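Both lines are retained for reference:
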Amino acid sequence: MEMLQEYLSEIEELLEQGKGGLFRNSVDKDAIMTVIENIRLNLPDEIKQAQNIKDKVEDILSNAKIKAEKIVEQAEIQAQALTEEHEIYLRASEHATETLEYANRTALDYNQQIAQHADEILIKADKQVQRVINGVTEQAEVTTAYIQEAADTVILRIQEAIDALTAQTEATTSYLEGLRTVIYENRKDLRN
């Protein structure tokens, strides 16, 4: 992406050197065409890198979710087996709570949200690059402003996604704490 920005800056410089308007004989058209070609050559790598990152994130999150589910399942089995002794029960309850918190942080809707945001970023990036390539000879300043606005939007949406995930994690933690209290109280009632 950095190379793309450099090429766009180079186009801006070439266009600013022109007198009177775009591409009047004082601007080096061959130089601009070379820069455009460089943008086209670098575009597929950027998109491939973004797709690879998305695929890796999906794989990592899928594996984390599977591991978390196995840990939760094992913790539930252990918790049932250890409910006879009070001290052992408390340790199992704490372990189950920690395991559930981990599972919620890494797996709860996270995979779908990351995949959705990565798709949106790829779609927007592709549209933006096409607009830059098609419009660079006519409206270099408008294209530059559009790219900045799109980047701000992507950053804002990523921040919103992070905020939503944080709120969801806090809600899940609160729910688990309440569930733990209910289990503990039910356990006390059963002993009485």
About this structure: The chain has one domain: 2-191. The mean pLDDT is 76. The helical segments are 2-17, 29-81, 86-107, 110-135, 140-191. DSSP finds five helices and no strands in the chain.
